[in-house]
Specification:
By secondary structure, this protein is of the alpha+beta class. 50% of the residues lie in helices and 11% in strands. The protein has 36 helices and 18 strands. Strand 15 and strand 16 form a beta hairpin.
């Protein structure tokens, strides 16, 4: 019996940690399984696809990897800031398993974030145990297994990005330092074998953190600042003398771990693998050595002047640093931009300030969605820890508190740092819960149930159990719901880009170039010198990595926010292209970037258009000019539009989506996606994907032959039902609403006829062509020529291509982008009808006429001469 009790006392924590591992596995592997292993092996999000690209390339060139990628941000290329740790981890895993490319490699990579997420339980336990105690550690590790939100979503099956490894190595660094600290303080001399080994191991762990994410060099400031403050207030924070030199040794080994990658970028950079990180790690070593010597030799001699001795050199050092190395100082100051996003960056979901809505209102909704109820335990826990520090005088508690505050500041500035704050929440929630469990006799009750003698109050225990349920149940339920899918490209996108890879020119050349190593240029201000004639694909930045990795084509814009451009400085890019208010401006941009294909989707047409407008115009309020108000359903079931919510009649239901204004319908995005490219001279649709999923279900439920009235009824009913819960309509329904709004409000004001209110393909691919120049004479009383043709897509959907031309001196000229003998699956099923007054002529174009910009002369008069063809090219 005594042996059993002894085992329980010593190993009681292991079953709880095992349960934590099983919960973590269930959430991270079993829940999202079907979303990853589906019609392909679907990696989540955007950046995991770029890691797949880097890893696949590294496997083909092992052990070498690319640090500059001319395959993205066309035609300039992007310096690669993704760290070596995950690239080599994935490459080695692929080589060992024999999975070197395609779905097989993606299947291996899908499990890597799971490993990081589950392993994070271990350093969380060690950290909390070394700083607080074993009970806090067990609770913290248990909670870390199912903290919802970004940490969970970035560590589930398929989401192979560096974020989970950032958190893992950060917590591992804190845990290793805390473990080492508690053993360093036991020895009188710092230069002992065990001490150096512990410092070296801790340093390598921190070095791996920097090798995972280059800006992690700034994390070292937490140790430096904590030690610096502790030295100044040595009487209030206990710190042994040997800690400072051993921490300097830690940074020395971090620098050695980072050094092999320190010259991968050509210039100083906080985000890329440059000498800056190496210099800063070395700087920490020097600073700590100086502090150690000042404290050791002078502060005790000059009694009463400790603060002056320690503070003055720091101030002098900062001034010297600013004067001697202004470029380096400027790069360091850029780290502040991490917590101060502005302009278009505010439309990036992971960059937006955490506690504020897009309208600028304070909210705790994100806190609940990312941490569940644990946030409301963890935040008071930080405050309690500050109070506790006054009595404990523990340096480790102080260091951890500085870390928690730094993580909260980062969280306040950017939503993305929720994945960092997850472990802060787990640890400090555990601290609070541990106190409550002690006070409310929960531990005593558990001890009594295990066969030990312990008195406890049942009432207190019931209250403790209710508190535990309040912390655990809502948080786990939220995590269970959030882990159902890891995201990734919808099937419509995957199919479209697979089609692009197989059906657009020079596929073999692109495939070969995709796997090559590339020289890193000194700068990328000039177009890259490609080994063959290339072209760019323009879409919104969200889709750049998918275009590169699935289609093996070169995107203009990418999720690094490269290639976005703007209109306020007239910078060519995706935002200025898709918000262009005329085709001639879009063509100027396309010329600058050598665009051949434009890809749009229903998200760009609807919700993401606002982001494109903000990037183009430069600020959130400036994008409002593209919108005109709201749609509502009155109490009598009448659909109406209002310029503001104040104009909505009483007892009406407002549909929570902003209705576009006249300016929106003039943009290239509207012309391409909403109007199917109709009215454009140099862009023709060549591929259309299937419908958005919800409309596939609607049509399956109703049947294929839905007329316009049926479509509107479904769309308005869906919008109404979702509005009752404050939820926006689905994207396909928003497209129908936008078209309906255009027909009612703007079709008579713009040079474009009524459009069929129906959902269309989720993704559409357009080719940029010179277009056939059709010109000729008309009768004297004609002022405008109208050209139209019926186009059928590969989805068997038809739409009208429509364009007009003004008559000048009795002559018209129009440029037409579609040929009737194209190899693409989207083409006209009728001739072009050219109308000039009461006269109608028909025209059929060949592919070479459209591609080469040939001129076709056809007079649309009552007594026309025969049509002729010229070989003159149109530029």
């Amino acid at each position: 019996m005594q042996d059993t009790k002894g085992i329980l006392e010593k190993y009681w924590h292991l079953p709880i940690l095992a349960i934590a591992v099983l919960i973590s596995f269930k959430l991270r592997v079993l829940n999202p399984w079907n979303s990853v292993f589906t019609w392909t092996v679907r990696l989540g999000g955007n950046d995991p696809w770029y890691y797949y690209r880097l890893i696949e390339n590294t496997i083909h060139n092992f052990p070498f990897r690319i640090w500059f990628d001319p395959f993205t941000h066309y035609p300039y290329g992007s310096y690669t800031h993704f760290g070596p740790f995950l690239v080599y981890l994935g490459s080695i895993a692929g080589i060992i398993t024999g999975s070197t490319s395609g779905e097989n490699l993606r299947a291996v990579l899908a499990f890597i974030p799971v490993v990081g997420g589950i392993l994070a339980i271990v350093p969380t336990y060690i950290l909390a145990r070394e700083v607080f105690d074993k009970k806090v550690a067990v609770v913290a590790a248990f909670l870390a297994a199912f903290v919802p939100g970004q940490f969970l979503q970035r560590s589930i099956l398929g989401f192979n990005d560096h974020h989970v490894w950032e958190v893992f190595w950060m917590i591992a660094t804190l845990a290793a330092f805390s473990y080492s600290f508690n053993r360093w303080k036991e020895s009188e001399k710092w230069l002992e074998k065990r001490n150096i080994i512990l410092a070296a191991v801790s340093g390598v762990i921190y070095g791996l953190y920097v090798d995972t994410w280059a800006p992690a060099f700034a994390f070292g400031l937490i140790f430096v600042v904590s030690l610096y403050i502790a030295l100044i207030f040595r009487g209030k924070i206990f710190i042994p003398e040997n800690i400072i030199p051993l921490t300097a040794v830690l940074f020395l080994f971090s620098a050695l771990t980072y050094a092999p990658f320190a010259f991968s970028a050509p210039h100083f950079s906080t985000a890329r693998y440059s000498p800056l990180q190496l210099i800063m790690l070395g700087f920490y070593v020097v600073v700590l050595f100086v502090l150690w010597q000042l404290d050791l030799r002078y502060s005790k001699v000059l009694k009463g002047m400790r603060e002056v001795v320690l503070i003055a050199p720091a101030a002098v050092l900062a001034i010297i640093f600013y004067i001697a190395a202004p470029d380096l100082f400027s790069q360091m100051s850029r780290i502040l931009h991490v917590v101060q996003p502005k302009g278009g960056a505010l439309t990036v979901a992971e960059v937006h300030p955490f506690f504020f809505t897009y309208n600028g209102d304070f909210t705790l909704t994100n806190a609940f969605l990312n941490f569940g109820t644990l946030f409301f335990f963890g935040f008071p826990g930080i405050i309690y820890a500050a109070y506790r520090l006054i009595k404990s005088k523990s340096f480790l508690e102080f260091n951890l508190l500085i870390w928690a505050i730094a993580m909260f500041v980062a969280l306040w500035g950017q939503n993305r740092f929720a994945y960092y704050f997850a472990i802060v929440t787990a640890v400090y929630s555990a601290l609070v819960l541990n106190v409550l469990f002690e006070k409310l006799h929960l531990y005593k009750a558990i001890k009594s149930a295990s066969g030990f003698k312990a008195k406890y109050s049942k009432f207190r225990v019931i209250f403790a159990v209710l508190i535990a349920l309040a912390a655990i149940y809502p948080t786990y339920a939220l995590a269970d719901w959030e882990s159902a899918s890891s995201g990734g490209p919808p099937k419509q996108w995957y199919d479209a880009l697979t089609w692009m890879r197989e059906n657009t020119p020079d596929g073999d050349k692109y495939d070969s170039f995709y796997y090559q190593l590339y020289q890193t240029p000194e700068n990328n201000r000039e177009p890259y010198n490609y080994p063959f004639e290339t072209y760019g694909v323009i879409s919104w930045w969200d889709y750049g990595h998918w275009i590169e990795t699935i289609a093996h084509r070169m995107p203009i814009a990418n999720p690094f926010q490269h290639g976005i451009g703007n209109k306020y400085n007239n910078v060519p890019g995706a935002s200025s292209f898709f918000t262009a208010l005329n085709e001639s401006y879009a063509e100027w941009i396309a010329d600058q970037l050598n665009v051949r294909y434009a890809v749009s989707d229903v998200e760009m047409e609807t919700g993401k258009f606002y982001a494109m407008a903000v990037w183009a115009e430069g600020d959130l309020p400036l994008a409002d000019k593209y919108y005109a108000g709201f749609m509502y359903l009155s109490g009598g079931g009448i659909v109406g539009f209002a310029e503001s919510q104040w104009d909505v009649p009483p007892n009406s239901v407002v549909i929570p989506v902003r209705i576009p204004g006249k300016l929106y319908f003039e943009t290239m995005e509207a012309r391409l996606h909403l109007f199917d490219g109709s009215g454009l001279s140099h862009y023709r649709m060549i591929y259309e994907s299937g419908l958005p999923n919800e409309w596939v279900r609607y049509k399956s439920f109703y049947g294929k032959n839905m007329n316009e009235s049926d479509v509107l009824k479904f769309a308005i009913n869906e919008a109404y039902q979702r509005a009752l819960y404050g939820v926006s309509p689905t994207m396909g329904t928003q497209e129908v609403i936008f078209k309906y709004a255009y027909n009612r409000l703007y079709s008579s004001k713009l040079d474009f006829p009524r459009v069929k209110p129906e959902p269309s393909g989720y993704v559409k691919i357009f080719e940029r062509v010179k277009g056939a120049v059709v010109t000729g004479k008309v009768d004297g009383n004609v002022t405008q020529v109208v050209v139209n043709a019926t186009i059928e897509t590969n989805q068997n959907r038809t739409f009208e291509y429509y364009i007009t031309a003004e008559v000048v001196n009795g002559t018209y000229k129009v440029i037409l982008p579609y040929s009737h003998d194209s190899d693409y699956p989207v083409k006209p099923v009728t001739p072009y009808y050219i109308r000039a007054g009461n006269v109608v002529k028909t025209l059929t174009l060949r592919e070479e006429q459209v591609v080469n910009g040939e001129t076709v002369v056809i007079d649309v008069t009552t007594t026309p001469p025969p049509a002729t063809t010229s070989t003159t090219n149109y530029d």
